[in-house]
Amino acid sequence: MDKCDPVYGPTNPSPDAQAESGVRRFGSVIGLDAEKEKYYRELHADVWPTVLDRIKKSNVRNYSIYTTEIEGKKYLFS
């Protein structure tokens, strides 16, 4: 696989621009067992208040999780 250099702009700020703004961005991808998807969705539909409090205290903002299927396998992107 060939390496592709990043292209920076308003929706993909450079590391220098992120450092200046104080905003740090993180991303992750993990596999999701298809038979566990229903349980995963139920668990995350009713998040414990202590978890929400910890997220807020950690200054995490604008956090989203998406699910998709690629070549028959389920993934979570956050």
Instruction: List unreliable stretches of 5+ residues.
Output: none
Percent of residues in β-strands: 15-25%
Distance between the termini: 24 Å
Strand pairing plus helix content: what structural class?
A: alpha+beta
Determine the number of helices (DSSP H or I, runs of at least 4 residues): 3
Strand tally is: 3
Radius of gyration: 16 Å
What does this structure look like?
The chain has 78 residues and is of the alpha+beta class. It has a domain at 26-77. The protein contains three helices and three strands. The chain has helices at 15-21, 37-45, 49-57; strands at 29-32, 66-70, 73-77. The protein has a three-stranded antiparallel sheet, with no helix packed on it. The longest helix has 9 residues, at 37-45. It is flat, with a radius of gyration of 16 Å. It starts with 14 loop residues before the first helix and ends with a strand. The mean pLDDT is 89.
